[in-house]
Design a protein that fits this description.
This protein has two domains: 12-189, Threonyl-tRNA Synthetase, Chain A, domain 2; 199-256, no CATH class. Helix content is 42%, strand content 19%. The chain contains eight helices and ten strands. Strands 1, 2, 3, 7 and 8 form a five-stranded antiparallel sheet that branches. A three-stranded antiparallel sheet has the order 4-5-6, with helices on one face. A two-stranded antiparallel sheet has the order 9-10. Helix 1 (12-33) packs across helix 2 and helix 3 (88-97) runs antiparallel to helix 4. The longest helix is centred in the N-terminal third of the chain and has 22 residues, at 12-33.
Length: 256
């Protein structure tokens, strides 16, 4: 269990534990509102948390708002998070009875000597190694925001099931959340893809994914930057070389 007397939100360990618990609160909210949805995984990440769900359609903005509201209710309920372990076969049966095939697969893929642990909070239980906060009441409901819903492949395999990944972020204070969201909006305004299109610098096409097609204005800017780059390198005694754009794949196999 994470001890809030030891950790603060500025501490990375505590912050990730906070967000990890938020992902479980999201999953619990999902099962309350959409019990037919199957659960996949829900970790903390560098800028928040996400949870993958098996559902036919992506979630709308209205549905995300409903999930947020349910998450706030769960936080107010101050549900205790309790960890327990089960033997492998019992753990598999436990998740089979709950109708959670993705959890069953995860358990089956664990090493034979692995400790199989779960976390229970009220009417919800999830397969998880932890750690977690000791109560959903530690999470400030008005500091939660679900930010996006995107498609994701189960276990990153394009041959497997397509899931819906809901991203979120949470802070102990609402003003911290507001500041974070404001920074994200400002960053979007400065996104090079947005500016490139608005300023007529380059365009992106499916024929060259990840490679910009520079337009006349963009070439002026590009050449100006290259000229500056050359001046700086010449000043410090560097000389230029040029290598082929395409080479035998054996080079990459040797070099890694």
């Amino acid at each position: 269990m994470a001890d809030e007397n030891i950790y603060t939100f500025e501490n990375e360990t505590y912050r990730k534990t906070y967000w990890h618990t938020c992902s479980h609160v999201l999953a619990q909210a999902m099962k309350r509102l959409h019990p037919e949805v199957k659960l996949a995984i829900g970790p903390s990440i560098d800028n928040g948390f996400y949870y993958d769900f098996d559902t036919a359609e992506p979630f709308s903005e209205t549905q995300l708002a409903e999930l947020e509201a349910e998450m706030r209710k769960i936080c107010k309920e101050k549900l205790k998070l309790e960890r327990f372990e089960l033997p492998r076969e019992e753990a598999i049966r436990f998740m089979e009875e709950k109708g959670e095939p993705y959890k069953v697969e995860l358990i089956q893929d664990l090493p034979e000597d692995a400790v199989i642990s779960f976390y229970r909070q009220g009417d919800f239980t999830d397969l998880c190694a932890g750690p977690h906060l000791d109560s959903t009441g530690r999470i400030k409901g008005n500091g939660i925001k679900l930010t996006a819903c995107n498609a994701a492949y189960w276990r990153g395999d394009s041959n497997r099931q397509t899931l819906q990944r809901i991203y979120g972020v949470a802070f102990p204070k609402k003003d911290e959340l507001d500041e974070y969201l404001a920074r994200i909006e400002e960053a979007k305004k400065r996104d090079h893809r947005k500016l490139g299109k608005e300023l007529g610098l380059f365009m992106l096409r499916d024929e060259g994914p990840g490679f910009p097609f520079f337009l006349p204005k963009g070439m002026v800017l590009r050449n100006t930057l290259i000229d500056y780059w050359r001046q700086v390198h010449k000043r410090y005694g560097y000389v230029e070389c040029s290598t082929p754009m395409m080479m035998n794949r054996q080079l990459w196999e040797r070099s890694g």
